[in-house]
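Batch job 17 of 40 flagged for manual review because the log was empty.
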Amino acid sequence: MANPTTSEDLKSASHDLTDKAVDAGLRAVDSLERTAINLQEKGERLMSKSAELGDNMQKVARNFSKAVDKSVTEQPMTTLGMAVAAGFILGAIWKA
């Protein structure tokens, strides 16, 4: 015959262990939810910064295009010389 105290102790220990496991699981889920929210916020900030960077790059490209057009119109020989020099430098870098 089983000792009633031992049986009750086992049930109590089992319930305590179950409660601790449930608490640990809930803490893990909370931690994962906070991490997911944090990653989502960082992703949204990164997308915003990427869009801003893209806009800035488009502005620079337009400005550069206007500058090249103006340079070709006003000083074609100087522009040609700069293009040759840039090509030479890029060729040297390419071979290195």
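Reviewer: the log was empty due to a logging misconfiguration, but the result itself is present. The CA atoms of residues 72 and 79 lie 6 Å apart. Unflagging and moving on to job 18.
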